[in-house]
Amino acid sequence: MIDSLRKHVSPGWVLVAPFLMLVVVLYLGPILNILWLSLTDPEPGLQNYQKLYTNDTLLRIIWTTFRICLITTIISVAFGYSIAYAMVHAHKKRQKLMLTLLLVSFWISILVRTFSWLMLLGHNGLLNNALETLNIISEPVAFVRNELGVLIGMVHYMVPYAVLPLLVNMQTLDTRVMSASRNLGATGSQTFFRIYLPLTKPGIVAACLLVFILSLGFYVTPAILGGGKVLMVAEYISVQLLVTLKWGTAAMLAALMLFGVLALLYIMSKFMKLSTVFGGSTS
Amino acid sequence: MQDKQFMRETLFEGAEAFKAGRMNRRSFLTLCAMAGVASSAVMVGDAEAAANEIVMWNWGGQSEECHGNAIGKPFEEATGMPLRFDTSGPLQGKIREMVDSGNVTADVCDGDLFDAIALGPSGHLEAIDYDVVDKAKTLPNYAVEHGVSIILYGYAFVYDTEAYGDTPPNSWADFFDTAKFPGKRSLYKWANGSLEAALMADGVSKDELYPLDMDRALAKLVAMKDDSLYWGSGSEAHSMVVNGEVSMGMVWQNRGRNIEIDTDDRYKLVMNEALAMPGAYIVPKGNPAGREAIMKFIATAQDPAAQLQLLECLGMTPSNPEAFAMIPEDQQPYAITSAMNIDNVAFNDPVWWGENGGDAVNAFLEAIS
């Protein structure tokens, strides 16, 4: 019997099993608890989910979150793509320097970055002061304390997250394919759009997924750079948990975010093998 | 980012500056960053309570020094029980979670009186023992079944003297009048104070604010939305003013002095129609030190000497009427219950906020976002 089991179950699972159990207990447990809360607080039923139909505010907050995350994703991945492209094609020494700079910004606390943007772009900030001194503007421009400020802060935070998967993807490409394309008479831009770009699709998808999913949970940046007018789901959940004690609503929104992300991954998996996106083998 | 950060903000960086009477912008911003780091660091919790000590759940910063000296020392001398701190911030949701989980590690929370109304009836709090704690040692409506006010804080506003020096604003009506006083405004993001200010601006008498007419208040706030910024923490309110982002800003009143000094008196505090908020001591159900000990502790905090020391250290105003006359002269313009201010301020109704606060905050967020 053990033999037949061995035939069907790889022995690797035995090694992984304890950790798998730990993850299941410590991870699935709390998630199920949240789901349970969303169905039972303040009283059993679906009324927390019904709020999605009846409460315009919730829909507006979800829409704001979705819109900001989408714009952040598009801009971050576009920037990330150019940076990764430049890094791959730079000299080895310069590549190291670029990677160091990227990682330094990657490791700086989000709070420090957010407050730095306030100092740079604020009403009395460096940029506004400089522009005023140069007589380019007469009134300070409102770069922060609005949706623009939130986007600047979020894109800045997300660019390294977009670069890293793209970089990994680009480094594994076989450059002879591009040479062959040129050799067969394609122009530079033809080679890029018809060969290079399609080959980096897994990297683009991975970067988009990573940035979008991380953006959904943003909390500090919108709260500080939004001037109180840009309310995203994460901050709203925190208020419902800590201040207004509407734990059912908070749990419902958290569940919605979770299923939203899972649905996103599912849809993506219909179009491509997700394991390639996350660095698995392409076969 | 969270409600009732008043305590945390004050303790973190208001305190030193308040005492020293000055604080420059650079050190202020450094402190902002530190507050963020520190507050996440303390989330892990240094909560540990045994039966022979009192654990105060508060907002960190200067509390060991200020609360320790003002209340902890005399209490330890009298009972032998030292005062320790859990500085992770007793928000309503966290108190409820702690009591529900059955692992109560704090004896007393430095919270708001409306927390007592919100959490008391559901069995999350110990009732105050008014044989030990004295109802006469706080303002008449500020001793409720599950909490008692020790200090008061308040919502007032500062204005730019360079913009409005000739005809200075003196009321919330002026604050909301952007035609007569052009410029940006800043308001508190989690509804408290902002709703009351809007109603007073719309002509509601300061003694007839409650129950709040939400529709009327929100209409007034929405009318000024394009000219408004909203702050979630005291440091944010402070920086919006000293950076010139707004020409009138709602602030916690004890920051008024910091701001006046920080801006070389360019910004001035207006205490007329300030909203007095009762900060309160509340006790989570089943606190480790037991009910008897913690009631004695709260009684110690009612002592005028202790309250005056908190005023000196943190700028929190005493709620014990005995202490009102003892407020030092240099603190009088900034203290809520000093002779010059007490008749001009409005008083928060913790019962209304405890019962309706959640819905009010959500309605407010809906209106401003």
From TrEMBL, chain A:
Locations listed in the record: Cell membrane
InterPro entries, per the entry: MetI-like (IPR000515), MetI-like_sf (IPR035906)
Keywords: Cell membrane, Membrane, Transmembrane, Transmembrane helix, Transport
Keyword Transmembrane in record: yes
Top-rank taxon: Bacteria
Main location: membrane
Spans through the membrane: 12-38, 58-85, 97-120, 148-168, 204-225, 245-267
Limits of the ABC transmembrane type-1 domain: 62-268
Membrane topology value: Multi-pass membrane protein
One Pfam family from the record: BPD_transp_1
PANTHER family assigned to the protein according to its UniProt record, in alphabetical order: ABC TRANSPORTER PERMEASE PROTEIN (PTHR42929:SF5), INNER MEMBRANE ABC TRANSPORTER PERMEASE PROTEIN YDCU-RELATED-RELATED (PTHR42929)
Protein family per UniProt: Belongs to the binding-protein-dependent transport system permease family. CysTW subfamily.
UniProt protein name: ABC transporter permease
UniProtKB/TrEMBL annotation, chain B:
InterPro entries referenced in this protein's UniProt entry, alphabetically: SBP (IPR006059), TAT_signal (IPR006311)
Subcellular location: Periplasm
Record keywords: Periplasm, Signal, Transport
Subcellular location, principal: periplasm
UniProt keyword annotation of Protein biosynthesis present: no
PROSITE patterns found in the cross-reference section: TAT
Origin superkingdom: Bacteria
PANTHER family (UniProt xref): THIAMINE-BINDING PERIPLASMIC PROTEIN, THIAMINE-BINDING PERIPLASMIC PROTEIN-RELATED
Family: Belongs to the bacterial solute-binding protein 1 family.
Name this polypeptide is given: Extracellular solute-binding protein
